[in-house]
Every structure is written in C-alpha cells, then in structure tokens.
Automatic annotation (TrEMBL):
Protein's organism: Thetidibacter halocola
Transmembrane segments: 27-51, 63-84, 90-109, 187-209
GO molecular function list: transmembrane transporter activity
SUPFAM superfamilies: MetI-like
Domain ABC transmembrane type-1: 25-213
Keyword vocabulary terms for this entry: Amino-acid transport, Cell membrane, Membrane, Transmembrane, Transmembrane helix, Transport
Pfam hit, one: BPD_transp_1
Designated name of the protein: Amino acid ABC transporter permease
Length: 221
C-alpha cells in the first residue's frame, strides 16, 4: 500500500509539480475560450445550413457535418498539424488544435442545434410571421431561444466533452494540462502529477456535470 501511495499519491511531488500544471491549466482554459465559442457559432451555421431550402447549401452542409463527426478528432488534429506542412502551410500547435477542434465541434454542435430547431413547432414560426416579424427576426427572437432551451442539457454535455477533448492537444506538444502533467511525470518518474491533473479536471468539470443533471431533471419534469 505504501508503494502505491508513493507512486500515485505522493504529495511532495504533487506540490513540486503544481506550478507546471498551473501553467498547463492556463493553456487548457485558453483553448476552451477559443474553441467553445467558435464551435457554438460554427454549429449554429451548420444547423441552419442543413435546414436550408437550397440543395446547394443543404447537401454540402450535411456532408460537412457527417464527415467531421465520423473522423476521429485525434486523426484530424495530427493531419492538420503534421500533414499541412507538406502543402506548405505551417501553423503553430495552438492554431492546429483550434482549427481541428473547431471543425469537429461545429459538426456536433450543429446536430444539437438542428434537433433543437426542429423541436420547435412550425406554428410558432407562422404565429411570429403573422405579427410582422421577418424570417430573421422570427429565427432570432422566437425559434432559437426555444430551441436552445430544448437542447440545453445536450449543449452543456457536449461542452464538457470539449473541455476533456483539449487533453488531445498533448499529442502536438502543446503545453496544456495533461502535457504538463506528463512532462512532470517524465522528470520525477512518478505518476502523481497525472493523478493531480485528473483531480484538476474533476474539480473543473464536476459542477458542470451536476448542472447538466439538474437541467435534465428539470426539463423532464
């Protein structure tokens, strides 16, 4: 038991590794601040495109959503970071992660938004248009607020997945939380920094997990 504690729960090593992990946490939060808003915006555009009347808009959008939902995000990230240089495009690890996660999350958020929009009865649109609202005003002030409410637990759940997804950035040597913990592990030859990183993720995400459960029960009532 003592060997397990020393190898996985060594407090001295955790304290020594904490400054490095704190820097990594800052990068993780910065990634979230970039990826989540971009993914939400891209997802909304994807949802609107997949519901468009024009086939020239709808079909390419559906292909975009299906393609980036099917491609593993790790494969996409490696392709962007390691593959684009062969085409003469060299980008930083941070930019590669943002682009890869933007494409992946836009597809997932798009499907959630699409389901939310379709859950709003067409009668709501007709009633809004009969009051003189334009199509854009109806979408912004009538349809989207109800759509977001209907799929809010799914949006929050996907956002939690996005935060966890940032750990994949370690494969391109971006100094986010998991990468920092792994660097500390390689120096100390001890798994305690990895355990500490897991605890940080748990503390960071637990309130949102509870929030999703609360919203889910509230909407189901």
């Amino acid at each position: 038991m003592d060997r397990i504690i020393q190898q996985f729960f060594n407090v001295e090593i955790m304290i020594a590794a904490w400054p490095m992990l704190l820097d990594g946490l800052g990068v993780t939060l910065l990634l979230c601040l970039a990826v989540i808003p971009l993914g939400l915006a891209g997802g909304l555009l994807a949802a609107l495109g997949s519901l468009a009347r024009s086939r020239w808009v709808r079909l390419p959008t559906i292909f975009f959503v299906d393609f980036f939902r099917a491609v593993p995000p790790l494969v996409l990230l490696i392709f962007i970071y390691a593959g684009l240089p062969f085409a003469g495009l060299r980008i930083s690890p941070f930019t590669a992660v943002v682009i890869g996660f933007f494409l992946n999350n836009s597809a997932y958020y798009g499907e959630i938004f699409r389901a939310g929009i379709q859950s709003v009865g067409f009668g709501q649109t007709e009633a809004a248009r009969s009051t003189g609202l334009t199509a854009t005003q109806t979408l912004a002030h009538v349809v989207l607020p109800q759509a977001v409410r209907n799929v809010l637990p799914d949006l929050l759940s996907n956002t939690i997945e996005v935060v966890k997804l940032t750990s994949l950035a370690s494969v391109v040597s971006l100094g986010e939380l998991l990468h920092a913990a792994d660097m500390a592990r390689s120096v100390t030859y001890n798994a305690s920094p990895i355990v500490l990183a897991a605890l940080v993720y748990l503390i960071l995400l637990w309130p949102f997990v509870r929030l999703v459960s609360r919203f889910g029960r509230g909407l189901g009532a």
